[in-house]
Amino acid sequence: MSITMTIIVYTSVGTIGIYLVALYFLRAQPALTDVMSRMSGPAPEKASTAGTSLVDGLANKLGLRVHPYLQDSRFLTLPTSDLSLLHKDPAHVLGEKLVAAFFGLLIFPILNLVLTAFGLGLAWSMPAILSLATAVFLFMIPDIDIRRRAAAARAEFAQALSSYIDLVALCRRGGIGSTQSLEIAAQVGDSWVFLRLDEELYEAGRSGEAPWSALTRVSQQLGLAELGDLADIMTMTGDKGASVYTSLRAKAASLRSAQTSAEQSAAVEATEKLAMPLAGLAGLFMALLLIPAVTVISG
């Protein structure tokens, strides 16, 4: 059974390797959704994910070919809201995951070949099992990294959003209309949060969409509940300047209070993590003091 499994694993590795090399030199077929979006309007601006290296180019071409077939799969799902927040292309991320899994399949076979050349090689069934486990682990690593970065981006977004809401409230109190208040406040800051809001509001204005409707759509797309709350406030209050000013200032204050509580909880958690190492060091120090005394008494 082990010999059969080993043959299957390394035959698959060789086949996948040949396929990846062929993909790198062949032109990728664009997905139908991308073609239709280009025909219907300007393509959405995305951060550059595909680099110039061999691995990046291979991941990009592999993702473009495989993503149309796997994007609706129930077993292989990508964190679409996290990717949209980070401006990362789902096809390229899928290609990175597949390339990482392929290299995971190669690590232990190559290492075993080197050991075999020195007469220290293992039975090929063990590298086969380890290579499969490594491939699965490396396939999941990009998802973990994306979720971590998206969580940090959402926290940063919430911090900047409190300032943005204060700016909108000041504009409304100054007699500026709701739409203009949202647009003017977005143009004040130069961080990526303000730039993203300015971009979305600009696109909404060009398409004739209400700005609060655009903010609601973006909040659902990116998983930003705080932005949806801002859109609800602007929708319900309308042109009531005094009412919307009070509601916006209260929302900004609640956001800052939540951020302070979250930072305090993180500080307490970090402090608690230090308790165990410190207790271990204290125990070791006490043992060093007591061992000589116990030795003398017992002797």
UniProtKB/TrEMBL annotation:
InterPro entries: T2SS_GspF_dom
Domain Type II secretion system protein GspF: from-to ranges: 165-292
This protein's UniProt keywords: Cell membrane, Membrane, Plasmid, Transmembrane, Transmembrane helix
Major location category of this protein: membrane
Cell compartments where the protein resides: Cell membrane
Protein's name in the database: Conserved hypothetical membrane protein
A cellular component term, taken from the record's GO annotations: plasma membrane
Domain of life: Bacteria
